[in-house]
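Human: If only I could read backbone structure tokens as easily as an amino acid sequence. Underneath my words sits a plain record pairing an amino acid chain with its backbone structure tokens. Take your time, and here it is.
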Amino acid sequence: MSMVSSSRLLLAITVAASVVLGFLGVLYLLASAMEPMRLWVGIILIGIALVLVAFVSKSLVKPPPITVHWSPSGAVKLEELKCPSCSAPLRIENPSVTRVVCQYCGRTIEIVEEPKW
């Protein structure tokens, strides 16, 4: 069973338990006219039902989305990459690629970012 379905199952069981306990609490409150001890049982059952409802409402609240901001430590300057064979400029369409084929001479160049220490 996946983590999502097990948490939904737990949520459904908690909601059902709070409804049943709240209903029984109201019944005990109504029956307390005959026997005063039932008043306390009804109050306790309704209290437990309210605690379960509070637990369910907290689990339904979605956390705010996480955003990551990147700021370089210094000024950013663009470098033009050139083919080591023919010195033609290399066009990189996607920044995640690690290899580029020169459109003029056909050589495959591997892009490696080396640290600048």
In short: The chain is about 45% helix and 5% strand.
